Amino acid sequence: MKEAKRQAKGHRWWRLGLLTVVMLLVVAACGDDDAGTTTTAAEETTTTAAEETTTTAASATTEAPPVEGTAYKIGFVASETGPGSGLGVPEANTARMLAEQWAGGVTGPDGVHHSVEVIILDDESNADNGAALVTRLIEEDQVDVLVAGTLSGNALAMAPIAEEAMIAMISMASSRGIIESEGQTRPWLFKTPQDNQHSAAWQAEYLNSLGVTSVCYLYENGAYGQDTLNSAKQFFEPAGITIAFEGSFERTDTEFPIMTGAQASGCGAVVVGSIPPGSSSVTQAAREFLPDLPIIGGHGSCNSQYISLAPDAVEGTVLPCGKLLFADTLPDSDPQKANLLQYIADYTAFTGGEPISTFGGHAWDALMWAGEALSSLEENADLDARRAAIRDYVETEITDWPGTGGVFNISADDHLGLDYTGLGFVKVQDGGYINFPSSDW
Amino acid sequence: MTAPDFVAETPPVSARRRATLYGVVAFSGFVVLIGLLQQLAPGGFDISRLTGGVITFDTMVRIGILTTVVVGLNLLMGYAGQVSLGQAAFFGIGAYVSAILTTRADVLGIGAGLANQWWWPWLLIVGGMALAGGVAYLVGRPILKLHGHYLAMATLGLGIIIVIVFRENFGYSLGSRNITGGFDGLYGVPRLRIGSFDLWPVERYYYLVWLVAIVGIVLALNLVRSRSGRALRALHGNELAAETLGIDTARFKVRVLVISAMYASLAGSLFAHFRVAVSPGPFGFAASLELVVMAAVGGMASVWGAPFGVAAVLVVRELLRTHLGSLVGEAGGQQEVVAFGLMLVLIMIFMPEGVIARLKQATRRWRSE
Amino acid sequence: MLALIEKRTSRLALKAAGVLLVVAVIWLLGSRQNFGLQQYGQLVVAGIGTGAVYALVALGFVMVFTVTGIINFAQGAFVMLGALFTVTLYETPFTGEGRTGLIISALLAVVLTTVIGVVVERLTILPARNADPLTLIIITVGVYIAIQGLALIYWGHAGRTLPSFTTATGSDSIFRPWGLVIKAQTLWVLATMVLAFAVLSLFLDKTMLGKALRACSVNRDASRLMGINPSRMSAIAFGIAAALGAVAGIVLAPLTKPVYDMGLTIGLKGFVAAAMGGLISLPAAVGGGLLLGLVENLAAGVTKAGLRDVFAFIVLIAVLLRGRSRAGRFQ
Lengths: 441, 369, 331
Prior knowledge:
The structure holds 3 protein chains of 3 kinds.
Chain A: H1 2-34, H2 42-63, E1 67-68, E2 72-78, H3 85-101, E3 106-107, E4 112-114, E5 116-122, H4 127-139, E6 145-148, H5 152-165, E7 169-171, E8 180-181, E9 184-185, E10 189-191, H6 196-210, E11 214-220, H7 223-236, E12 242-249, H8 258-265, E13 269-273, H9 278-289, E14 295-296, H10 304-308, H11 311-314, E15 318-322, H12 337-351, H13 358-376, H14 383-397, E16 401-402, E17 407-408, E18 423-429, E19 432-435
Parallel strand pairs in A: 1-4, 2-5, 2-6, 6-7, 7-10, 11-12, 11-13, 13-14
Antiparallel strand pairs in A: 3-4, 8-9, 15-18, 16-17, 18-19
Chain B: H1 13-40, H2 47-50, H3 57-79, H4 87-103, H5 112-115, H6 120-143, H7 150-168, E1 186-187, E2 193-194, E3 197-198, H8 202-225, H9 227-237, H10 239-244, H11 249-275, E4 277-278, H12 285-298, H13 305-328, H14 333-350, H15 355-368
Antiparallel strand pairs in B: 1-4, 2-3
Helix pairs in contact in B: 1-8, 3-8, 3-11, 3-12, 3-13, 4-6, 4-7, 4-11, 6-11, 8-9, 8-11, 12-13, 13-14
Chain C: H1 2-31, H2 37-68, H3 75-91, H4 98-125, H5 133-155, E1 174-175, E2 182-183, H6 184-206, H7 208-218, H8 220-225, H9 230-252, H10 262-276, H11 282-302, H12 308-321
Antiparallel strand pairs in C: 1-2
Helix pairs in contact in C: 1-11, 2-6, 2-7, 2-9, 2-10, 2-11, 3-4, 3-5, 3-9, 3-10, 4-9, 6-7, 6-9, 10-11, 10-12, 11-12
């Protein structure tokens, strides 16, 4: 009996060895796979930044004596894994790209040079993780400014922590509640994505031009979908449009029982509030059940996945989208055009041809504000003073600021600073997005 | 089936009491030490710096909160032999009761005179525990008359239903603000205070959280060593035999389920006052699974396993997050997840009785040498 | 005797009253949206389509549970692997174009997933075979987490597409009898489920290996005495479960957009379906799957999709509370 046990034990250790080897191989293989393409570890980024800074500083010594000031840190949290990863991955890629671009650091107006480190963390689409990471960034890493929150729920969980620590947090999630609480602007919070109200305003205008007065509203059962529905209710009614049917669905649904209700309601158009893959699936189902109705999407569908997942079904659908998707067709006079093209070129080069999405653009806008605010600071060793100065800078100086999401005009009353013209209107045609301005309706 | 081997090596009662007392004192001392280091140490020898940033003070508070949940779960799993796949929902009940009745007091018609009293949130903590216990009782009573994995399935269903209630807002909205905040959740939960003494900043809250956790552990140890505890162990060992000995197994199981739900709800309230924001995310099925994992890693048949299991899971995750990169060159969040899954498998294969059992073995060996 | 009869009739009456109540509630809620027979018919069609997938996954749960006593949380991962392997293989030029490409890819995907199922069992369940069932369940959770993580690394976070079986293109052919909308792929799902159930039942009934598996599920020690190796049976059960999961994933793929984390939801629903059947009976698992699909779709149709799972789990708890402990296995 004992003998058998010992044997079993020997067996076990042999297996442990095997499993460890397999595990190491797997992890190593994946590491190789990703090398130089999309994923770079936070540590990797930061060491590069630090090294580059020292070399820059060293080479600069030969020219002019530089004054090296406080090292600046930007805390960045996105949902790189979990349900939010479709949004979080392009955001984190953008952060890594900018970390590389800022490796040389910034020089303040007083001529003092500062290194800039972007600490990139993944909250796994979990609100509690997000809150813990933000606490860590504020207390342990002592960051100057936060760019955090891919999903609204996560950003809302992080927000009170930033407020309590009195540090500016720029959110990449879209819920209005992040920057406003009961009609009051939350002083330490900003966001870059357009409101769902902006999408709803476009949709209402387009529906009016079609002469449709009753719609079926199909939304994904999640924070985003629910918010689009609420925005639609706010904007459709004044425009004389009734929501004859509202139905929700899950991202992974295979059958769409809501289509039954939609059919029965006899509405004149379908409006979808969802992100891919849900928006592609539901559009496909809408085509099958309501083949004659026009389908209008929201700006959560503004990435290439929306089309690639159901190319036949989404052909001909229209939706409001950030101008990032059709930057090359914009007139040269458009104030955003230069920045948009720049971002597209940089992102494509950095990721080796990953498709552009507006979510990466939201991260770019947010990080650029943070970067601009940092380079405006005079040397000041007091962290709290720096954090306050950054907040003040973003609130007062981001005006007529052409970003990827629109031309921002931030004020004390509006910590987004966009109106609905920040979005454009597009049509899906021949498997791509084309500009579809109101003059063509 | 590896039933816990209590019978085989039971030292005399007085010696056991003394050992427990030493354990509690030593553990409390350790907790206080970390708290003091955080507050007082000159030049900073706090937990975060001592561990190279792996365990932050925030993590210590989270360990304390989750320990309270897992102590309850351990009673259920280790001593009553039942699994709950919906424990995070009981955790959520506490969090939501505290959050709703503080931040939505005006909407619900609760006067500011009442809602602004310092003891109001404390009352809600008790209320949340009562609610969670009541729900557990209603579900557990019919289910626990059945044998097998039925409780697991029922709690799984219950957990999912409760989270849907949170995010669908009971299907209603009151005025412009809905009660549970839907998917976005609620924020602006006030900090706890006693009279005018605020239990915040976090250095103060830490002591509250751990006080609750340690009292929870002591109560659980008492329960385990009481008459009911012996009944429970008999029940885990062999339900049929226990029944023939005249133990009302269903009643005992229901009682443990209710107690574990109350532990979870208490911790949930503390969590709401810690994060000051709640949303449905952290209370779903995945979170329930994670709690079961923590209980199992620590050792299901041991109350003391709870803090170690929680700490092991959280620390391993942080370690992977901070150090996996330097181990394999490059790693994003994705590799962490894989490594975490594999670690879990390895721990369960090589330490099926949990970390605490291994620690006990090691100390015994060290003592005998 | 009389009391027994009385008890039985009263129980029957209770059951009938319950069913009537459910029907009445559905009718009432449906009438608010002007639902007619056609609408209910449509919901039933959707319910059977969804339920067939759940049934396939549930069969996998039952296979593993009866033979090993483990609730295999990695079952959802097999569904995801089946779907995503097929997509990837189909996209490689090696498997060919069109329908033949689809068939070859699907077969290869099933084989691959089966191998993974067996390997998983050998590497993780075998070394811990003497552990508590609960420990083994947690091991399968770890396996699920690891596989999903690997899938995220390999396939990324974006959804994929697989052409429907009938047309071999993205848009499926649709039948429209009496104003209903029935997708050809839904019929494929249903047919696959029936076929898989029939083959599995025959296999367990008629073959030596199947009988050995059943013996193992009834009494492990006795079957060991009869020269059956329970450890090997466990590996075979995992292999069969993986294959069933992969098949479910493949037939499901054209209806959804396969993505690395699809396994959690579908695995959970499959588990619920199996649980409704008591986790030990193949026909009951199929019944549980179909019931779950119908409840979900009818509930979502007449109320909100968000509340769908509430109804699904209320039905689960009701079924559990029926409380008949089933004695036999593989009835």
